[in-house]
Amino acid sequence: MKKYELIHEVYDLCNGRPDSKIEEIETDNLDEYLKSQISKASTYEKDERDDDSVLYTVMTNGQKENYTFSPIS
Fold first, then answer.
1. Chain segment 5-14, per-residue pLDDT in tens
2. Residues with Cβ within 8 Å of residue 27, at least 6 apart in sequence
3. Which residues, at least 6 apart from 28, have a Cβ–Cβ distance to it below 8 Å?
4. Which of 62, 31, 24 is nearest to 46 (CA)?
5. CA distances from 4 to 15, 32, 49, 58, 70 (A)
6. How far apart are CA 14 and CA 71, in angstroms?
7. Of 24, 20, 19, 30, which is closest to residue 5 (Cα–Cα)?
């Protein structure tokens, strides 16, 4: 399995500032991992970046979350 540093940001609905947590995860499929973490009512956009990280922007009932996965060598 591949290892990633995950930065999960949940944006405050009032002031728009994120509350963040960082953890290491292992997965072979980022899309499936993300789907296991979010509600079925959520929508998301995926952005594959030049530095090999992957950013998912998730919206759930007006609540914005970012999941940034950066590979660990």
1. 999 999 988 8
2. 1, 2, 4, 33
3. 1, 2
4. 31
5. 29, 14, 14, 19, 5
6. 32
7. 24
Cα separation, 15 vs 34, in Å, equals: 25
- Locate 24 and state its tokens: 């290491």
Q: How far apart are CA 18 and CA 4, in angstroms?
A: 21
**Tens-digit pLDDT profile for residues 12-68:** 888 888 999 999 999 999 999 999 999 999 999 999 999 999 999 999 999 999 999
Q: Which residues contact 11 (CB under 8 A, 6 or more apart)?
A: 17, 18, 19, 63, 64, 65, 66
